[in-house]
Amino acid sequence: MRCPISEAKRESQRTGRTPHTFKWLLSADRATSSAALDRPPIVSLHLAPSTFPFQLCLKYGSNLGAMLRLSAHPLLRGTGRKSRLIIGGILCAIAIVALLRHNDAGSQPGRHENEALSQVFGGLSSTIPLQTHPEDVVTKNAHRFASPDDFLGDHLDRIRRLTPLSVAETKQTCKWTANELETTQFMWGPTSEWMKQDFDLNETEFRRHEWMNHLEKETIPWSTVRKHFKGRGIVTAAGHINSLKRLAVALRQLTRLGSTLPMEVAYWKDEISDDQKAWLEGLYPHMYWNDLSSPKNVFKTHSPKEKEYGHYHLKTAAVLNSRFAEILLLDSDNLPMVKPESLFETPTYQEYGTIFWPDMARTRAENPMWAITRTRCRMDEYEQESGQLLVDKRKFWYHLQMSAWMNEQPYYLSMLLGDKDMFRFAWHGLKTEFGRPTMWLTSIGLVYDGRYCGHTYAQRHPDNSVAFLHRGLYKLHHKASLKWFRERGGMFTHYKQSPYDMDMNHPVPTKWNFDILDDIKGGQAWSCMDLVGVAHKPVEELIPGGVEKLWEALDGYWIINDPDEE
């Protein structure tokens, strides 16, 4: 084994610099490699020379078996087994003292030197690979793997050994101008901690270590659950009475389209009564129900009231626990405009086993998620809009578990919004391409007082027709405003379509704001999305026959006649 201090000296002589910290280098000798020790290399830590004993502890882990391996190290040969074990323990004790003394000396280590100190005794693997590899060694067609297990083993090992990428490196591939940064919608603003200063490599590599450790040690093996899932179906998470009423509109539409694709509604405990189930089954007979609190579910989750994460975690749990193998995840406020069966037959889905639809916003280049997943920032990629999502669980069981895990981690709440981008970055982390429509979304809304207010996304089928109307901001309207606009032509009268909707690289200026009209008595403010500089057109040019007649036929304005709504 080569001494890391000597390595640092040689590096200093070679470069003429004496860095305050250096990358821990250990022997590439296969006899003492992480592979031989069954301790896969995951994270790259930058540790000061004074913490060398601590590095030995990191190399060999923290449980008894690992301590025995440490005690058998060649440096300790020649002593009895019991003595070697005692010496190994002493080395780790010295490591702690050395690290604390290093801190007291005024040299503050990276944030995760301290975190690693606490985590090493929890059994996390922290062995450092000597050799890393460029991005092109990872299989480009991983989405074609036949089994989820193919993503572990050699593929995961190649991902593990990718050359680390810092935030400074990952953001270099996104070169928006100052004006584009000002006019394009980006998720999270300049007040975010990671916008004020780039997270360092120790930070992002430590977090990368966490998710890889989760994949390797904490996920449910595919072999134990594969028989639980079969067929295709729609999955939605709904429980609140208003979400059920919105879902009723979608069920009427599925019946109108002639769909027979079964739907499974995921809920929590007593959120849905038997009478409500019977009502919805009367609208669409192909219904199943899944109580996510039931011990029968293979993936355990928690009540939406237990943690302050909203209800997003229920969507990933609904997908993992669904009886279906191939799933269309659909929000209750989303209206299918084509038979959903057709989506599973598209070349895009057949090739990738997924279709992820784009959102209005983009991910900032400074977002640490790019580095945490060792992915270079992509200018051709919008954030994901998960009001609809197509996925084959038979291929991506571990990707979905990674998404669900990130959804439960408070750390990611300031980087990703709910479930939607947890999916996208799980795919990035596992270096797997996902299917996308060729056209960006189209905004649908209405015009009043000469100004446009978009409240619905028209998401495209891979053949470029309109596949969904996702009413993300429509549901923020109250009874008074819906009644007022309905009497003046309706809520779905115009649309805006970017002239660059086939070019995902093009930054389209967008605007989001609140609005209100004094003419609406008792009305409350609502939200609008706008494509700046794009002319609005009659919605009939986009959807033959328009939307209003359809909306009336589906009882889309139910809220106006609902005595429980204000």
From TrEMBL:
GO molecular function: alpha-1,2-mannosyltransferase activity
Gene Ontology annotations for the cellular component aspect, listed alphabetically: Golgi membrane
Location in the cell: Endomembrane system; Golgi apparatus membrane; Membrane
Listed InterPro entries: Alpha_mannosyltransferase, Nucleotide-diphossugar_trans
Keywords tagged on the record: Golgi apparatus, Membrane, Signal-anchor, Transferase, Transmembrane, Transmembrane helix
Pfam families xrefs: Mannosyl_trans3
Superkingdom of this protein's organism: Eukaryota
SUPFAM superfamilies (UniProt xref): Nucleotide-diphospho-sugar transferases
GO biological process: mannan biosynthetic process
Membrane topology: Single-pass membrane protein; Single-pass type II membrane protein
Ranges that cross the membrane: 85-102
Similarity comment: family membership: Belongs to the MNN1/MNT family.
The name this protein goes by in its record: Glycosyltransferase family 71 protein
Organism: Carpinus fangiana
Lineage of source species: Eukaryota, Viridiplantae, Streptophyta, Embryophyta, Tracheophyta
